[in-house]
């Protein structure tokens, strides 16, 4: 069985496991874990920021970022299908009492002009005050699309002018960096806060971090404690993350190449896939246009030895390439997908 459901299916490599079992440890909750401290220093340098906090998940990193910057009743603006808005269990409303305003986007990208049009910059008797602009890079629902640098700069310029903070949900930030051939700090240095995840394309079993300006993150550790995210000998996980930052970023290009191979083979075989939409490691397949319901299509695929998953869009399936899935695996998956969906 070739499993392409998500890049959260990664497993640690032997090298990563060695890094985990040999990492120096201490009590992270009192800032005495040397591996966590080293990881946080690594991240501030890589992302052009001042401070970092290691957390269990990128969802928690996003929520802490919000709680550090958004008061109850204030507004967050972002692309309407952003992960924080759609797939974090209503955290902005439940935890922060925030209003979320979703903007229409193209491939996950919205513009500074859209923010300018909607932002409420002062107190109002009727409208929530806008506090934060949210960027998801890469953008999951749009198919792992990376924000073009020019579009990001335009948004930063507008938000700087308006006095709005920008938070980067960078669960797949390093995919964007590789796809754009840009250093990570070229994407993140102007943001107020950045969330990064280690358990997707970077191949770690768990872990994430919130990185940002020191003054903004001053309450972050207390908020992490409130959310139940404080850790003790967390160097076991931080060791995996440090290994990933050293060894698993450049190889993301292999995942992107494999996704393009998969998309091209399927398109050449007559399936409704557009290789031009593959920026990083996601491939979308429109099974509705084949007259198939997603459940039936997934069952056909499973019976032929390949696993896809439901995409956000109705009638669309998703495959994701990642470490542990070789070019040979992807070519075999393409053959099995074609057989499953063109012959039944």
TrEMBL record:
Keywords: Lyase, Pyridoxal phosphate. Residues 3-288 form the Aromatic amino acid beta-eliminating lyase/threonine aldolase domain. The keyword Lyase applies. GO terms for biological process: glycine biosynthetic process; L-threonine catabolic process. SUPFAM superfamilies: PLP-dependent transferases. It holds the Pfam family Beta_elim_lyase. InterPro entries: ArAA_b-elim_lyase/Thr_aldolase (IPR001597), Low_specificity_L-TA-like (IPR023603), PyrdxlP-dep_Trfase (IPR015424), PyrdxlP-dep_Trfase_major (IPR015421), PyrdxlP-dep_Trfase_small (IPR015422). Belongs to the threonine aldolase family. This is Low specificity L-threonine aldolase. The lineage of its organism: Bacteria, Bacillati, Actinomycetota, Actinomycetes, Streptosporangiales.
């Amino acid at each position: 069985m070739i499993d392409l459901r998500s890049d959260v299916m990664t497993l640690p490599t032997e090298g990563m496991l060695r890094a985990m079992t040999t990492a120096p440890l201490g009590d992270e909750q009192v800032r005495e874990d040397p591996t966590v401290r080293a990881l946080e220093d690594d991240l501030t340098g890589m992302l052009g920021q001042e401070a970092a906090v290691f957390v269990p998940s990128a969802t928690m990193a996003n929520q802490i970022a919000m709680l550090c910057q958004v008061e109850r009743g204030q507004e967050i603006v972002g692309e309407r299908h952003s992960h924080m808005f759609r797939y974090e269990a209503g955290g902005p409303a439940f935890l922060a009492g925030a209003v979320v305003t979703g903007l229409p986007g193209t491939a996950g990208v919205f513009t500074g002009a859209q923010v300018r049009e909607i932002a409420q910059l002062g107190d109002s008797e009727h409208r929530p005050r806008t506090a934060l602009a949210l960027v998801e890079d890469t953008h999951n629902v749009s198919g792992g699309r990376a924000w073009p640098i020019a579009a990001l700069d335009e948004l930063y310029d507008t938000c700087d002018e308006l006095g709005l903070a920008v938070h980067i949900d960078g669960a797949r930030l390093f995919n964007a960096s590789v796809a754009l051939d840009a250093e990570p700090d070229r994407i993140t240095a102007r943001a107020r806060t950045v969330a990064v995840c280690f358990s997707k394309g970077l191949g770690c079993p768990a872990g994430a971090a919130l990185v940002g300006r020191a003054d903004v993150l001053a309450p972050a550790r207390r908020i992490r404690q409130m959310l139940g995210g404080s850790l003790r000998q967390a160097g076991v996980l931080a060791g995996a993350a440090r290994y990933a930052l050293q060894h698993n970023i450049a190889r993301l290009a292999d995942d992107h190449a494999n996704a393009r191979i998969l998309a091209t083979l399927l398109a050449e075989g007559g399936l409704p896939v557009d290789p031009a939409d593959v920026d990083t490691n996601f491939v979308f397949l429109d099974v509705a246009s084949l007259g198939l319901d997603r459940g039936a299509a997934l069952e056909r695929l499973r019976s032929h030895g390949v696993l896809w998953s439901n995409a956000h869009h109705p009638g669309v399936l998703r495959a994701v390439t990642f470490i542990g899935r070789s070019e040979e695996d992807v070519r075999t998956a393409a053959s099995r997908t074609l057989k499953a969906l063109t012959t039944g």
